[in-house]
Each structure stands twice: as C-alpha cells, then as structure tokens.
Amino acid sequence: MVSAFADVDNALIAIRQTTEKLRLQREVLSASRRAFELSEQQLRAGTADIVTVLNTQLTLFQAEDALSQAQLARLLAIVSLYQALGGGWEPRMERAGNAL
C-alpha cells in the first residue's frame, strides 16, 4: 500500500519535472530557430560564412531532437502515473484477415 502511494508520488513528480523541462526546451528551440534565421540573413547579406549557418542549423536540429526526447519523457511519465493508479490495458491483437 505504501509503495503504491510512493509510485503515484514519483510519477506525479516526474510529470511535473518533465513538463517544466518541456517548457524550457521549447524556449531553447525558439531561440535556436531565431539564431538560425539570423545566420541565414547574415549569409545573404555577406556578413556571415556558411560555417556559421551550418553551426546554427546543427544547434537547431539538436534542439528539435531534445524537444522530441522531452516530449517522450513526459508521455512516459504520464503512462507511469496511469500504471501507478492501477490502470492497464489489454493489447488488441488483430487477425491477419483484418490487418489489410
């Protein structure tokens, strides 16, 4: 019984932490996108080189990847909460004839 409460508490904490991480990662992504756009403008204006643009693009891609990972972590925390609350589901097995 006590471990069940601990599991629920841990899952709620994980949701709160991953939600905050997701919020912060969205800010990082926004800043990375803006930096990339600025570097492209500087390249067109002749005030930046292609290496700068590629570096900001790499940073943007890394921020997008980190955002996806943060979203996954939050969803996994939600599933953990559901399981800690006693939820469960039966996987549906489709018959071969219904798959097509």
Describe the structure in your own words.
- The model has no long low-confidence stretch (mean pLDDT 91).
- This protein has 100 residues and is mainly alpha-helical.
- It has two helices and no strands.
- It has helices at 2-45, 50-84.
- The protein is elongated and about 65 Å long.
Radius of gyration: 21 Å
N/C terminus separation: 45 Å
The main sheet comes to:
none
Strand content: under 5%
Give start-end ranges of low-pLDDT stretches: none
Which outline best applies? Answer: elongated
Order of helices and strands: HH
Output the number of helix runs. Answer: 2
Number of strands: 0
Estimate percent helicity. Answer: over 70%
Helix/strand-derived category reads: mainly alpha
- Overall mean pLDDT: 91
Quickly list its features.
100 residues, mainly alpha, elongated
Question: Strands, helices and their partners?
Answer:
Elements lengths: L1 H44 L4 H35 L16
Helix pairs in contact: 1-2
Sum this structure up briefly.
With 100 residues, this protein is mostly helical.
